[in-house]
């Protein structure tokens, strides 16, 4: 046969278009539809038993029209009809970024998941839970895809349960929680990077073809350098009130990995889950592995609505006592650091009372005897009161607090261990470290191996004993300052399981703790905002955004946190950081749960009386801030000022916070700021609050309608000598 003849014979293969049209030939046998109040998510089960995610967007009024969705797309070739897979498996037909990849017991790395069945449970509590059961065609390997639609909140939660019946362990080399497929002309990603005292720094970029990954490999304190929470704008214009926006994040406190892959068809695949870095998880036969939840909302009316969805959902489903009350407090960290004794603390209890806040929080430094905790170089793990500082123990402080009439709370960092500690001497194999390499410290400390059940018991018992001995302890601040270096667990037989089992161990402890102490207020602190996620926030009532308490920086950080996390969870303390006056500092702290970390003796008498009055003012508005809806009017990164408001549920009360974030003598807000979210038919009394004694108000006897405030607006008159302005609106009868 000549070369020419061979080419002629092969030509039909080169030009066979059937391979290029597989997507068009797909026959959908079932639509699985999840709906919330406004949004729908549609999955198709194809004739070949593939499951595809084909729609996420506004709910349609005729649900039978979802079957038409895919027919309207004539995109580029999808050679294997896998681009829209609801959970792309690797090693067979899919060559895009996988959601799952495995190494079977026999070493084979192929997986092709096929639909078996699904169930659709709709609860009376407004939750729709769809489970799709899938199995590999060859191996006894099973995956359940879980989708939960929270009807009222427009929030979807997605997770996966993986199990197998192979003869030996299977290695999960990637095991995402979710694999979304989004369609739009363009995708803009707003993600968050940062560092200690500079958390939640946003960056926005247009996503191009290829893969962009957000991840953390820090083990603990995993948001120190990056958050797993992000926003995707899907229209050219996407802002607070306009555009289609997806807000999401992984509810997981360990290493995470979110891949954004703009695929050859120009769709965006979002694959979110635990980071597979150094974690090719060994899964035993007949043992289910449940991934953490990937939580997201879609708003077609801008970011603001997406945030309100997140806040409502978090208050109802995640934060401990999310719709309850919070304790205002005085903390001693920045006023004493490690240098205190019983006498000083008794005095601080008096100051707590004097200031008018609810609780005194004793920070780091109260423990350790052989190695006293007088600096951050020792004693973590030795959770006994230091006899020199507290000769009569915590019990005498709680007794004194009772006498003074304030509550008392305490700091702990139970996951950690100091190399200079009795615990380290007794239990060196409880420590995460490479036994054959030099130790490497983060803040002079190491991490306890929470993947070890014995260590889990130790941590639980530490807290339990503290509370049993001191039942009136009213608050815990749980800190976590170190990342994991030299990751190695003496307990694990397969080091691949360490990172994942560490975080699961942490959750086991917190689960046990919450079973016994369901409502005890507890702050999630991680050397600042190193751990802010809805996996951990399931067990905490509030979080600490940053050790940076300069109110200027806090305006920006609190603003970005507010995209995902509600104000009731944001612990904001007034400290000596920052050159602003006390009013500015207090105004910023009021946008959340207010606390103080100040030496009252260092305040001038007029400052002290201002602070005392501000606590009372806050008591009047905190209900609106904690339980109301947030509307952001001005982003300080886009304008020279920040402006936002909380509005209560019946729209009868609102509080607006405004801050000048631009340092210039002549700049002022020349135009009114338009409100959102008010009742246009209500008339509101406009009052400027938290004013210094001699400050002039812009709102004397002013009554304006919601209609006016939303169409014309209100000018808070921010200028050089009015850098922060708080306005209270009260509907007139
Ligand atoms: C880091 C925290 O973020 C601070 O607020 C303080 O509690 C210190 N740790 C104490 O060591």
TrEMBL record:
InterPro entries registered for this protein in UniProt: Aldolase_TIM, Alpga-gal_N_sf, Alpha-glycosidase_related, GH, Glyco_hydro_27/36_CS, Glyco_hydro_36, Glyco_hydro_36_C, Glyco_hydro_36_N
GO terms assigned for molecular function: alpha-galactosidase activity
PROSITE patterns per UniProt: ALPHA_GALACTOSIDASE
Domain of life: Bacteria
Boundaries of every Glycosyl hydrolase family 36 C-terminal domain copy: 642-729
Cross-referenced CDD domains: GH36
Enzyme Commission no: 3.2.1.22
Residue intervals of the Glycosyl hydrolase family 36 N-terminal domain: 50-284
Key words of the record: Glycosidase, Hydrolase, Signal
Name of this chain's protein: Alpha-galactosidase
Annotated source species: Sphingobacterium anhuiense
Lineage, highest ranks first: Bacteria, Pseudomonadati, Bacteroidota, Sphingobacteriia, Sphingobacteriales
